[in-house]
Amino acid sequence: MVLGKLRYKIRYETAAQKLHVTVVQCQNLPKKDVIGASDPFVRVFLMPGTHAELKTKVVKKELNPTYNDEFSFVLSPTDVQKKTIVFQVFDWERFSANDGIGEVQVPLWPPSVDLAMETDRWEDLEKITSDKNKKPILKQKRPAAMRSHSTASSVSSVRSSISSKHDAGRATVNSMHDVGRSSVSSMQDIGRTTSGQGFHQERSGSGFNQGGSYHYEEHTTTSTHQTGNDSSSSSSSGNSTPARRPTTLSGNLSLHELNNRLERYIQQIRLEPEGNPTIINYERHTEGGSFDITSLPQYKEWEKLQMEYLKQEEELALVESEIEMYKQNNKDLNDRNVSIEKQIREIEASIS
User: Fold this and answer.
1) 43/8 Cα distance (integer angstroms)
2) How far apart are CA 211 and CA 84, in angstroms?
3) What is the DSSP string of 132-183?
4) Which residues make Cβ contacts (< 8 Å) with residue 63, sequence separation at least 6?
5) pLDDT-derived band at 297, boundaries 50, 70, 90
6) What is the pLDDT of residues 36-57, one digit of tens each?
7) Contact 46, 83 (CB under 8 A)
8) Cβ count near 299 (within 10 Å)
9) 265 vs 46, 165, 174, 253, 273, CA distance in Å?
10) CA 223 to CA 221: how far, in whole Å?
11) Which of 63, 73, 135, 240 has the smallest number of Cβ neighbours within 10 A?
């Protein structure tokens, strides 16, 4: 059975990442209405996926309708090649379900469509498909080779993202370690070169700071603004070598504690790549701009038919009322005839 043809255009803008789909026209559609015409319109689906209902305008009483309705979708170059455009042609019905006429399915991967150039073609309508949710059933699946290539690309991008985040975290840790070490080194150098000049000194026994330990703190004296050294002495032999405790930076935070905090911070960082959701927006463009529906020839024709229908309804109502009146008059005449016949029989009986 010949179901007609559909002409469509498909164009992809790589820079804007927009897919433009245009329903141009249909030809030789079958007659669906009783009066021998159809009121066709076209539904557009981007599958797999869900989106708002997309459809063209309805062209009344036409088997070769022209639409030129455009729909736009925002899709990345990778995602667009995973989709299929489905056009379904229906006959619009006012008081019942729309009748399906036919459909065309267009996979958006090679060799069906070359997205590097605009596609403009005619295709024969095939039998319409529908699942339990009244959505088309795809007839072709994306080739396995393209799916594996896409998966490999995704894994590679995830690994590169994780590697870059690891490198950034390590660089931060190294730089913070270097800052801490340089700070401690500079503080130790200051302590060695300015010993006795800007420090708070304490003596124990006969030796100065012998057997003691170095503990850096912040002190301010009247004679200097340099960082001071508060040395706590302990009893020891004069030949013993001073043992140093873990150096404490400003704010009483040692290098060991700083390292532990940095490691905990890095572990808390989520090294998972950010998701890449598909965002689908659609825009509808209709040629001709805005117009007054009352000025259309179709509207005037409909208005004329409506007036004729109302006039015929009034005439029919008058005829029905006259019929009811004649029925009542006929009943009254019958009743009178029965009464007269009864009287005649009574008279004839009395005479005889």
Assistant:
1) 12
2) 82
3) TTS----S----HHHHHHHHHHHHHHHHHHHHHHHHHHHHHHHHHHHHHHHH
4) 4, 28, 29, 30, 31, 37, 38, 40
5) confident
6) 678 999 999 999 988 888 999 9
7) yes
8) 12
9) 44, 13, 14, 16, 18
10) 5
11) 240
Residues forming a β-bridge with 99: 91
Q: What end-to-end distance do the CA atoms of the chain give, in Å? A: 86
Q: How far is CA 28 from CA 32, 101, 128, 281, 298, in A?
A: 12, 11, 16, 32, 21
The torsion of the CA quartet 299, 63, 27, 55, rounded to 10 degrees, works out to 60
In one letter, which amino acid is 137? Answer: I
Question: Is there a cis peptide before residue 273, judged by omega within 30 degrees of 0?
Answer: no
Q: What average pLDDT does the structure give for the chain? A: 74
Predicted confidence at residue 155, as pLDDT, reads 44
Question: What tokens does 110 get?
Answer: 């090679």
Contact in structure between 10 and 119 (CB atoms under 8 Å): yes
For the stretch 185-199, pLDDT in tens is 544 454 444 444 444
Neighbouring residues of 161: CB distance < 8 A, sequence distance ≥ 6: 273
231-265 confidence digits (pLDDT tens): 433 333 444 444 455 555 545 677 778 888 888 77
CA 339, CA 327: separation in Å to the nearest integer? 19
Q: Which residue(s) pair with 107 in the sheet?
A: 84
| Residue 4: both structure tokens together | 């007609």
What residue type is 260 in one-letter code?
N
DSSP string, 269-338: S--PPPP--------EEETT----GGGSHHHHHHHHHHHHHHHHHHHHHHHHHHHHHHHHHHHHHHHHHH
